[in-house]
Design a protein that fits this description.
By secondary structure, the chain is an alpha/beta fold. The protein is built from 6 helices and 13 strands. It folds into 2 domains: 100 residues, Beta Barrel (Elongation Factor Tu (Ef-tu), domain 3); 123 residues, 3-Layer(aba) Sandwich (Rossmann fold). The chain is globular. Bound molecules: flavin-adenine dinucleotide.
Length: 258
């Protein structure tokens, strides 16, 4: 098919963009109805959803949805949240919300009631298990915990991984049950979340061997940038690192390419 015939079937190209690929990037839209909500830890609230067509959801562990969260003032906040778990047979999807203060995401999660329905788009994102690694390194803060645990749980028996996870304190620790051999180290910040070098220092002490490795670097954007830079210095190739800025002080919603 040449450019002219492409334009006939995909009119967006005539305006310098491709409507079909834009729709693909945004993903499909879903109506998610709350089934239940519960605290996982004092600062993490799990909300379980169902949806009539959820059996058609094509999800890779680690990926997220963009949720449209109604607010008390009548507005709607669009925020990225990772699919913590998905059971297609039960049409059930779980999302874990960090309660970091008075902000739309946590506010909605705290008020979520069975029967409420929200909109979601996706799944999206390159954060997913790559098949071609001998071992994996997961680095992240509490916002990355759902992605790290979802990916760790998806690894088969015999796979090896190491996770360094930064949280505020022991009250934020969660047990990980998975088939793979995953060693989790918890780093206690004991301070408000934000730019800091705790994980970077732990990474420097670990000095991981890049041979056969794939690293996932997720969480606060400036921390992610520093950790990715350090991994590149250790000899990790760019294609051996999946990095994404999940949040940063002052930014509202969205995500940062790193
Ligand atoms: C791909 C992807 C997956 C994500 N998955 C999850 C997930 O599974 N669970 C989850 O809880 N978050 C996740 N996040 C992060 C989440 O989208 C952001 O934290 C988002 O800003 C939360 O929206 P909010 O309404 O709470 O705060 P916003 O209204 O967006 O921000 C208000 C203020 O709070 C600050 N802020 C935002 N997040 C935090 C935080 N964690 N700690 C301290 N201050 C913060 C902002 O910088 C801003 O100053 C993910 C982000 C991305 C990009």
């Amino acid at each position: 098919m040449n450019e002219t015939s492409l334009r006939r079937v995909r009119p967006g190209l005539a305006f310098g963009f491709d409507l079909a690929s834009l729709a693909r990037r945004r993903g499909r839209s879903w109506d998610l109805t709350v089934v239940e909500a519960a605290q996982v830890t004092p600062r993490m609230r799990s909300v379980s959803f169902t949806g009539a067509d959820l059996a058609e959801l094509d999800w890779r562990p680690g990926q997220d949805l963009v949720l449209s969260l109604p607010q008390a003032d009548g507005g709607v906040a669009r925020r990225h949240y990772t699919i913590r778990d998905f059971n297609p047979a039960a049409l059930r999807l779980d999302i874990d919300f960090v309660l970091h203060g008075d902000a739309p995401g946590g506010r909605w999660a705290l008020g979520a009631q069975p029967g409420q329905t929200i909109g979601a788009e996706g799944p999206r994102g390159r954060t997913r298990i790559t098949e071609d690694a001998d071992w994996r390194l997961f680095l992240g803060d509490e916002t990355a915990l759902p992605a790290i645990f979802a990916m760790a749980e998806a690894l088969p028996a015999g796979a090896r991984a190491r996770a360094l996870i930064e949280v505020d304190g022991p009250q934020d620790v969660q047990p990980l049950a998975c088939a793979a051999d995953v060693e989790v180290e918890w780093l206690f910040r004991r301070a408000p979340a934000g730019p800091n070098d705790r994980l970077l220092m732990a990474l420097a002490a670990l000095a991981p061997d890049p041979m056969g490795a794939h690293a996932y670097v997720l969480g606060e954007t400036s921390n992610v940038r520093a950790q990715r830079h350090h991994l590149l210095g250790l000899g990790f190739g760019r294609d051996q690192i999946t990095a994404e800025g999940y949040w940063r002080p002052g930014r509202v919603g969205g995500h940062d390419h790193v």
